[in-house]
Structure formats: structure tokens, C-alpha cells
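Dear colleague,

Thank you for sharing your sequence with our group. We've completed the structure prediction you requested, and as agreed, I am returning the results in plain text so they can be pasted directly into your records. Please verify that the sequence below matches your submission; if there's any discrepancy, let me know and we will rerun it promptly.
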Amino acid sequence: MVRSASGLGVICVIRTEGDVAEWNFPADPGAVRDARAAVRGQLHDWKLASLDDVAALLVSELVTNALRHATGPIGVRLVRSARSPGALLVEVSDPLPDLPRERAARPDDETGRGLQLVANSSRRWGTRPGEKGKTVWFELAVPG
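Please find the predicted C-alpha cells below.
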């Protein structure tokens, strides 16, 4: 375990070796910053720094949604799969079982654009229920 950059909680690093990196973040406002930093650092280690801006932005959106609607730890997982070498899979999980729905935000709405941003910035995306909550995932194309 490591202290979070925000100093508010502890990040549980599940694993960061091989082709998978996983972290659990406490449900506090610093989780967004800490998740962004973890994703950027891992992508740099994997020599995928060209993806770090878009990946960090989309993870920020999904972690923010998880903080807004759920309580409990927030999981972030990155996967480089040999079965799909041209893609990076990014997953954000939380304990709330309700699957999010993409909606059309009105011009004056302050929220409601996160899933639209994920849908428009990723190769594909989706949601799936889990044993304890749900996972929202997206894929980014890995430059060749």
C-alpha cells in the first residue's frame, strides 16, 4: 500500500507487473488525481505515453462518476492483451450495481457529458455488472 498523492487515503496497489495494472482507491476526492497519476505512470512504464492524456481524462471522468454516485473503493485496471495487441483496455469499477446510461446533456447542464466523452474518445466502450457493483470499460487504440 502507498499513501495517496492527496494525503487523504491509502491506495491499494493490487499489481503492476506484466500486462495488467490494478489499483483500488478510497472513495474520496483525491481519488481522481491519484487515479490519473497512476494511469499516466503505468502508461509511461509501458512506453505508451502517447495514450496518457486521453486515458487520464477518461479515467478522471469515470472515477468522478463513481465518486458522485457510489460509496466504497473504486478500482482502476489497465490491460494490454496479447489477444488484442492493438488495444489498451481500461476499466473503472465501483460497488454500486446500477449501470450508467449515456444521456444528452443540455447546453446549460453542468454534468452529464462524461459517458459521451468516453464514447466519442475511445475505440469502443461498455458496462458490465459484477459480483459487487459494476465496471465501466473502454478501449483505446495502441499506436503501431
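Summary note from our side: The CA atoms of residues 20 and 61 lie 21 Å apart.

Kind regards,
the structure core
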